[in-house]
Amino acid sequence: MDEPGKNVVLKEFQEIPGVGKSISLDLWNMGFRSVRDLQNQDPEELYTRFCIQEGTQVDRCMLYVFRCAVYYASNEQHDPQLLKWWH
Length: 87
Description:
Elements: H1 6-13, H2 21-29, H3 43-54, H4 61-74
Helix pairs in contact: 1-2, 3-4
C-alpha cells in the first residue's frame, strides 16, 4: 500500500529535469520526501549511497542526474545549461 502523498511527491520529483518515473521512485526509496530534501546534498554521496542500495556499481549517468537534482533543489534561479542532466 502506498504511503499518503507518495504519488504527489513522485510527480514533484519528476519536475526536476532528467528525473522520470523510475528515478523519482529511486529518490523515494532513498528516503527523500520532497524536492526540498535534496537541497545542499552531496551528489557524490548520493551516488555512493545509491550504488550500495542497489548492490552494484550503477552507471555514472546517475551521478549526473543527482548533480542536476541537487542544483535544481538548491537554487531558485536556474541556469538552463546546468539543468541538463549530463552537465
